[in-house]
Structure formats: structure tokens, C-alpha cells
């Protein structure tokens, strides 16, 4: 009969010591809360009938006065043919290849 009582009392002592250690270590102050997030509001409240100022368009930097936005850039190189014949050193005229059977 004394054995279960000793086990229970030992568990109570160990639990009490763990609780004391946890309480002593938790006495640190919590870290401060982060700064609140600020949300920007429109300069004119919605529904007031006053329109907000429209932003001025930025210049596009196109100085060559044509319809595209290339700003005088050089045209890209033409695309390669469908057939890649860079390794055909002995063939000078690719159009005659089909007739050489």
C-alpha cells in the first residue's frame, strides 16, 4: 500500500518542480508588438463628386518620331531558314539539292 502512495507523491514533487521552473523562466516580458500597418486613403473621399487629379503621362523616351517605341534601335537580325544548313560546306546552292537524285 505504501508503494503507490510513494509513486504519487514523487510525481507530485516532480510536477511541482517543473511548474516552478516554467513559471520562473516565463517571467520575461513579451517582445513589443510590431508597428501598426498604415493604409493610405484617397485624397478625395469617394462619392464627393470631386475628381482626383489625373496623373500626367510620363514621356516614353521615343526620340525618333515614328510610330513604334524602338527609340531608333537597330532592327533585329532576320530569322534563320527552316533548314539549318550551316554544316553543308560542299553545297553552295541549296536549291539544287532536290534535283541531284
Folded structure, characterized:
With 101 residues, this protein is mostly helical. 24% of the residues lie in helices and 0% in strands. The chain contains 1 helix and no strands. The chain has one helix spanning 2-25. The longest helix has 24 residues, at 2-25. It is elongated and about 100 Å long. Residues 27-101 are annotated as: Disordered. This is Small secreted hydrophilic protein.
What key phrases describe this protein's structure?
101 residues; mainly alpha; 1 helix; Small secreted hydrophilic protein
What's the arrangement of secondary structure elements?
Blueprint: H1 2-25
Tell me roughly what share of residues is in helical segments: 10-25%
- Largest sheet composition: none
- The backbone outline, from C-alpha atoms, is elongated
E-strand count: 0
Report the uncertain regions.
Answer: none
Q: Structural class, from secondary structure content?
A: mainly alpha
The chain-level mean pLDDT equals 70
Write down the oligomeric state: single chain
Order of helices and strands: H
Euclidean distance between termini CA atoms: 110 Å
Strand content: under 5%
Tally of helical runs: 1
